[in-house]
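Folding follows sequence. Below is one example:
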Amino acid sequence: MTERLLPPREACKRLGISFITLKRWIYSGKIRAVKTPSGRWMIPKSEIERIIGGKGEAKEIRAVIYAHVSSSDQKSGLERQIQHLIQYCSAKGYRVVDILGDIASGLKANRRGLLRPSTT
C-alpha cells in the first residue's frame, strides 16, 4: 500500500505555515518530502502527522503583538492598536505570549520595543 502524498499547499494549510517555511523545512531536513518526476515536491501524510503529533490540527500558535505610534499625543491610539491586535489573535486562536509597544518616530529603526529580546 502506498502512502498518500499531499501537495505543498495542503501540507502548508494543515501545518499552519507558509510555503517558504515548508521549503526551508524540506531543505534543512526537518520534514521529509518526495520529489516527483516532474520536479514537484509532495509531502507524505505521515510527515504531517509526525509534526503535528498525530492530532487533527496544528499545535498552538504563539504570537507577539507589536504596536507603534509616533508621539506621546497618540498614546490612546497605542492602547487601541494593542486591544485590536489582542482581539485579532483571539479570533484566530493564537496565544499571545508578549506585547510590545513603542512611542517613537517611524523613521527610526532602533526602537526599544523592536530591539527588546523576547522573554519566551
